[in-house]
Design brief:
Length: 623
């Protein structure tokens, strides 16, 4: 007669819950097994996998490592620990473990899939594609492998093949949010905004997924068919759909605003404390705040860190990683730090924590630069901007937030380390540059560029974007083979490559109505002027704000006709353009746009002067 240990039935029940997707119930039963038998190998492994699925990578690593110590050459255990470390961002350790697993089990599709995902994470897309295609030979109906292949192909500049892979994954798992979001991002990068919007709207309707909702709102910011008022209405609507609608009942204040004369403690929440456009503007502010004695606190909602993260960390009194924390835990941390002003740098972009702001953990809450449209929420005391970027006063029909103006520009620029500008081009032909994300390049922009190329028959256009080939096809369809022959494309594979591309153009053509910010500053830093068009879109006057402060109002145009005429005229003014280009970097360095201390003083003065909202004034203080 076979004897059964008490753990057997517990383990069987736990495993049944695990297979059924009831992770909390499975975890509780696995914990009971381990209380009775701490070295139970399968339980250590499976409980570790649940911890990994829940984002508790330290616990997952500990448990799976304990199982691996019992069977060091077990491929499945090596694979699970490797995948845990991949998700935790420990790529070198992860690759070592996954390579060991693959050596022991060369055709194991799970190992190949996870190694393929790791190689994609590491930027080695070609290797990843080969591995993932091999997986799909064995498992052609594997949605996860199709999704990972889509990511690898996208990174490998094969957008149409990537879309096919994402669509294959979605046929197997309809409304899978990860695949919908990734495919919609790819469609945006190809300039196919309507397709991206429809895909996201259908998924949001089916799932109510907050990440899909945020991605949809960001996509709508590029839709030229929406008026600013329509854009605000959609933001309010989607915010309510994903559970972010706010009102007085959700407000909870723990402290009074800082007393007059007191130096406020300022906290910043973002998922982009790394090499990202936000960092080029946050770092100057943090340096300025430190110079004037203001304490800064950063709450980073992303696991990836790099050299820019290290710079931000060094400038802050405290730097907290919050990507694994619940909203309640983040709120407790903000309150423990006694933050006076809490700044959102994400809006509805990825890795945001708007749910924290809805709960009002700080007396004053503002959003700044990370999302130039309205959030559609009522939990902010101000959207920080400037009078040139968003004229109109404290209330604006496109914003749910009150508007507060910084004394100068809404941005203060900190340039990236990198090359000095090359001497201005003198050779023919004249070359326009378009170095924007393709999501900004709508039919009106492309139509204007086509008109410019028609009016300047010897000029060329250099496109650098993920969807550059697709954009070239659109322009070629408008103008035929002669126009197509004058359009060059390059991949934007690194910041250094992107910056060096300015050496090969004479001026940059800005997008509209969503104009450039970071791209405009980078161009000016590389001694390259930018031609912009001003509009009433929430992000339609960023170029105006920058250029007019540099006495470059001649590069700001009020209409498409004026934009086309100005671009064409510069092709005949090479000498004047050469003289201008010699000194743009120096002009930028001397300007208020790079005065970190002055910007920080203005920032603090602006937030300190914010009036308490009616909601705030009616709240009692919560200890």
């Amino acid at each position: 007669m076979t004897s059964h240990r008490p753990t057997d039935s517990l383990f069987s029940s736990a495993y049944a819950h695990h297979r059924g997707g009831r992770l909390d119930a499975a975890a509780a039963l696995y914990d009971q097994v381990l209380a009775l038998q701490p070295d139970h190998l399968d339980t250590l492994h499976l409980r570790g996998l649940i911890a990994m699925q829940m984002g508790d990578f330290e616990r997952a690593r500990s448990m799976i490592s304990a199982a691996l110590a019992q069977q060091p050459e077990q491929p499945n255990l090596l694979n699970s620990l490797g995948e845990t470390l991949r998700r935790a961002g420990a790529r070198e350790e992860s690759e070592s473990l996954l390579r060991r697993a693959l050596a022991l089990a060369p055709d194991n599709p799970d190992v190949m899939n996870n190694l393929g995902a790791l190689l994609t994470d590491s930027g080695r897309a070609g290797e990843a594609v080969a591995l993932l295609e091999a997986v799909l030979v064995q498992r052609p109906q594997d949605a996860a492998s199709l999704f990972n292949l889509g990511l690898a192909l996208s990174l490998d500049n094969q957008p149409e093949a990537a879309l096919a892979a994402f669509d294959g994954a979605l046929r197997l798992r309809p409304n899978w949010s990860d695949a919908v979001n990734s495919s919609a991002l790819l469609l945006k990068n190809l300039g196919r905004i309507d397709e991206a919007r429809k895909r996201l709207e259908a998924c949001l309707e089916a799932t109510g997924d907050p990440l899909v909702g945020g991605n949809l709102l960001l996509t709508l910011c590029y839709d030229i068919n929406l008026t600013p008022q329509d854009l605000l209405a959609r933001h309010r609507e989607v915010a309510a759909r994903i559970g972010l609608a706010t009102g007085a009942s959700s407000v909870s204040r723990h402290r009074q605003p800082p007393a007059p004369g007191k130096m406020p403690r300022i906290g910043f929440i973002s998922g982009d404390f790394r090499e990202h456009p936000i960092a080029f503007f946050l770092l100057p502010l943090l340096r300025g705040l430190k110079a004037i004695g203001i304490e800064s606190f950063a709450y980073g909602n992303h696991s990836l860190e790099d050299a820019m993260t290290a710079e931000i960390r060094a400038l802050c009194t405290k730097f907290h990683r919050i990507e694994k924390l619940s909203d309640d835990e983040v709120i407790q941390r903000v309150r423990a730090d006694a933050i006076d002003v809490l700044v959102d740098l994400s809006g509805h972009t990825g890795h945001n924590r708007l749910g924290v702001f809805v709960r009002r953990p700080a007396p004053i809450q503002v959003n700044w630069i990370g999302y130039l449209a309205s959030t559609g929420l009522d939990c902010f005391d101000a959207h920080l901007t400037d009078a040139l970027a968003l004229p109109g006063g404290r209330t604006h029909p496109a914003y749910s937030e009150p508007i507060a103006y910084l004394p100068g520009c809404q941005w203060c620029y900190g340039p990236p380390p990198g090359p000095a500008p090359a001497p201005p081009r003198r050779e023919e032909p004249f070359v326009f540059g378009a170095l924007h994300g393709a999501a900004k390049l709508n039919r009106e922009v492309l139509g204007a560029w086509h008109r410019i190329l028609e009016a300047a028959p010897s000029a060329r256009l250099l496109l650098m974007a993920q969807g550059a080939a697709s954009i070239r096809e659109h322009l070629a369809a408008m103008g035929g083979s002669e126009i197509a022959a004058r359009i060059d494309t390059r991949p934007a594979d690194s910041l250094a490559t992107y910056l060096r591309a300015h050496d090969d153009v004479d001026c940059i053509l800005d997008a509209f109505p969503y104009t450039g910010g970071t791209t405009t500053f980078h161009a000016l830093w590389m001694n390259t002027p930018v031609l912009t068009l001003t509009s009433g879109h929430p992000a339609g006057r960023g170029g105006t704000s920058i250029l007019e402060r540099l006495d470059l109002a001649d590069w700001v145009t009020p209409s498409v006709d004026a934009y086309v005429q100005s671009a064409t005229s510069w092709t005949q003014r090479r000498k004047e353009l050469t003289e201008l280009r010699r000194g743009l970097r120096a002009r930028l360095e001397r300007s208020s746009l790079m005065d970190e201390t002055a910007f920080a003083r203005g920032f603090v003065a602006t937030v300190a002067a914010l009036p308490m909202s009616e909601i705030q004034a009616n709240q009692s203080v919560v200890p």
